[in-house]
Amino acid sequence: MTEVSEKQTETTSSAALLDEVRESATMGQHAAAEAVRTFRRTVNDALPEAMQPLRTKLVDAAIELAEKLVAAQYQFNRNLIRTADRALSTSDEEDK
Asked: Is 73 helix (H, G, I), strand (E, B) or coil?
């Protein structure tokens, strides 16, 4: 009976960790999107309409940067989950 209870607790802990990582990733994506919007407004306010090609180039670069940051965060979160899963699995095997 205790073994079943322990496995349920570990599964719940793993699920909770996964949910936290997903929430963190979502928050990071929203923060990156908001940063790009703020940057775009700043560029639009700072540069006159006549400099549209420069404005477009700057905003495109900011979007590319944000995409790379979000991708890096996603990869970090995936690695974190894999590492935590391995640690929990190893712990389970040692307990047996």
From this structure: helix
Count: domains in the chain: 1
Whether 9 is in a domain gets the answer no
Segment 10-31, tens digit of pLDDT: 567 777 877 888 888 889 889 9
Question: Would you say residue 11 lies in a domain?
Answer: no
Does residue 34 lie within any of the structural domains? Answer: yes
pTM of the model as a whole = 0.66
How far is residue 10's CA from residue 84's CA, in Å, rounded to a whole number? 11
- The residue segments making up the domain with residue 88 are 16-95
Cα dihedral sign, 75-78-80-83: negative
| Distance separating alpha carbons of residues 43 and 38, to the nearest angstrom | 9
Count of CB atoms situated within 10 Å of the CB of 22:
12
Q: ∠ CA(53), CA(59), CA(65), 5° rounding?
A: 135
